[in-house]
Amino acid sequence: MGEYEIRAAGDGDVDGARAVMLDTVYRDLRSGYVPRWHADIIDPATAYLRPERCTLLVAEHVASGEIVATGAVRDRGPASPPNPRWVADRFPSGTTAQLCRIYVRPEHRRNGLARALVRELTDFVATAGGYERLYLHTDPAVPGAEPFWRSLAQEVCDERELPGGGQGIVHFELPLPAPLAVPAR
After folding, report:
1. How far from chain centre, in Å, is Cα 135?
2. d(Cα 17, Cα 22) in Å, to the nearest integer?
3. CB-CB contact of 93 with 84 (8 Å)
4. pLDDT tens for residues 88-120?
5. Which end of the chain is more exposed for a tag (fewer CB within 10 A), N or C?
6. pTM for the complete prediction?
7. Are 123 and 180 in contact (CB under 8 A)?
């Protein structure tokens, strides 16, 4: 991508990835760090680098060497509560790949990084195999997030339309990519 390099994160990328994620939950999501929601941010190596069917990608700004974007896949679906039971049932853990932590620093947005991360993450899901669904949720209060996901995925549930508004998040499903052949080593 020219001025950016997207790659699978290694141990040396964890601090930069964590900084992008924490900045996003404080600045854009305005929730701050909430342990039950964000434990993976504090220890991304355990959450994404060690499990075989999970991954964390980073985008490095080549000129500065700074990690400016993240994206991850985890091998579990949404929990109920806090999500609606029928959403959790549709996306069971183990057979659901969940896209998460797709965050881009504001000064690097509108450069195609999020779309490139999603493309790489869906390729990972296809190569990992064993997944039956590809799920994500987003907070529509984050600038640009909802229209971005609507351009790529199918809405499953907009909690703002539920009695009481739920958590106010929107759940999406992406088309599951065809399995990719794993290259011989």
Report:
1. 9
2. 9
3. no
4. 999 999 999 999 999 999 999 999 999 999 999
5. C
6. 0.91
7. yes
Q: What is the DSSP letter of 123?
A: H
Torsion of CA 183, 94, 77, 60, to 10 degrees: -30
Total residue count of the chain as it appears in this document: 185
| Rounded Cα–Cα distance for residues 28 and 106 (Å) | 9
Is residue 127 within 8 Å of 180, Cβ to Cβ? yes
DSSP structure string for 70-110: EEEEES----TTTS-HHHHHHS-TTTEEEEEEEEE-GGGTT
Residue 172's nearest CA partner among 143, 140, 136 is 136
Pair 4, 59: CB distance under 8 Å: yes
Q: For domain 4-174, give its CATH number from 3.20.20.140, 3.40.30.10, 3.40.50.880, 3.40.630.30.
A: 3.40.630.30
Q: In what order do the strands lie in the sheet with 170-174?
A: 4-8, 55-61, 66-74, 96-104, 133-138, 170-174, 154-158
Cα 138 to Cα 74: distance, rounded to the nearest angstrom: 15
